[in-house]
Amino acid sequence: MTQADRDRLVTLRKAKKRLITQRQAAEELDLSVRQVKRLLYGLKKHGDKSVVHGLRGKPSNRRIDAAVEREAVKILSAEVYRGFRPTLAAEYLHRKHGITASKETVRQWMISAKLWRAGEQKVKAVHIWRPRRSRFGELVQWDTSEHDWLEGRGEKLYLIAMIDDATSRLFARFVRHDSTEENMKLLRSYVEKFGRPLAFYTDKASIFRTAEKRRRDEPGVDKDPVEMPPTQIGRALQELGIAWIAAHSPQAKGRVERNFGTAQDRLVKGMRVAGVKTIEEANRYLDEDYLVWWEREMTVEPATSDDAHRQLDKSHNLEASLSHMETRQVRNDYTFPFDGRFYQIERKSIVSGMRRANVRVEKRLDGSIAVRFAERYVTVRLCVVAAKTNVPAVKQASPRRPANRRRGSDWFRNFDLKSGPKTWQAAQESGRRSGEAD
């Protein structure tokens, strides 16, 4: 008998001795008068034990059979369900094996079978959460998670995710590299599906921001920051009219970080059960299973039903904005270098003022090249450089020079200075010849 049962027994004895009325006893016990009458009848017939519930200490009539419990524990002991938490285990038992039990029941089964260790709940530091944005598309958090998503069954993958701040609606894709090109492809898919959001919220990764280069011994607090040119993604967002907001810490973009925490647990284990081994299978499972579950269980309704996304208009060129863009100078022969090759502007596209002018070269996501001069695109072709003929040169051996030969000029080699006339004799002879000539 518990203390509550004892207190109830004291009140019922008072009502039995008519020290208080049945209505007063009902108000004191927070019961109806009819229930108090039943309890007084039981007290008269069965004594003090009538205040104790008849099923106390007995197994519930709705108790799950022990054979079902043993079958569930056997299933969860398999290697494929290693590391499953009680909530996820309960879902898979119901969906895959037809065993329906609450997550608390499954938790007790797993604790009894030593598949789960019950730990104390520790109070963490309390942070004041930033309120959600009020409209869908007003702010979208964007980040990439590097993880062993396939648990060694396949190649290394990255998960790029975009999650709306107002609704927690998720848009994600597995890629092989966390590169500018892969992020631009996901951005294009997002814009084509939902439209242009008002702002993206990301970290300060190099694909989003160009960092200022400084020496290690150079103080940074005393120097004004230098405005750096935008990255390819930064330029694309500017052309599409989408604002970019940088997060100063991982906690600031906690919504997308918590999404990755859930994915690294639930998504990894789901792909393990499904036997996913390739990136194609991973993206198929992501679209057909995980994102469907996320949309059903994790999204919320926005405070305002208005959609903040803006559709593309005629002034936006999605292929041009979402490309690798560089500037090149046109040479006098109307050629320019790009990506290790030379391109020739076609004669029909040549206009006045093009020589020594800059053109915008766009390498599109499909690998094609587009060149724009001023506000119009020009036609170019790849310059084919003739291959050099490799003719082996015959090297002729030079005659060997004698070891004792003197270096320098040998113009006086045939002159015999000893047998010639003296200097004064040569002078007299020269004077005599000069007089004869006069």
Characterization of this structure:
There is one protein chain. The chain is α+β, with helices and mostly antiparallel strands. It is built from twelve helices and twelve strands. A five-stranded mixed sheet has the order 3-2-1-4-5, with helices on both faces. Strands 6-9-10-11 form a four-stranded antiparallel sheet, with no helix packed on it. The protein has a three-stranded antiparallel sheet with strand order 7-8-12, with no helix packed on it. A hairpin with a 5-residue loop joins strand 9 and strand 10. The longest helix is centred in the middle third of the chain and has 21 residues. The chain is elongated, with a radius of gyration of 44 Å. The N and C termini lie far apart (163 Å).
Mean pLDDT across residues = 86
Class by helix and strand content? Answer: alpha+beta
Largest sheet properties: 5 strands, mixed
Molecular shape: elongated
| Span of the ends, CA to CA | 163 Å
Task: Please count the beta strands (DSSP E, at least 2 residues each).
Answer: 12
Binned, the helix content reads 25-40%
Order of helices and strands: HHHHHHEEEHEHEHHHEEEEEEEH
Strand content: 5-15%
Multimeric status of the protein = single chain
From the alpha-carbon coordinates, what is the Rg to the nearest angstrom? 44 Å
Low-pLDDT runs of 5+ residues are none
Strand line-up of the largest beta sheet:
3-2-1-4-5
Please count the helical segments: 12
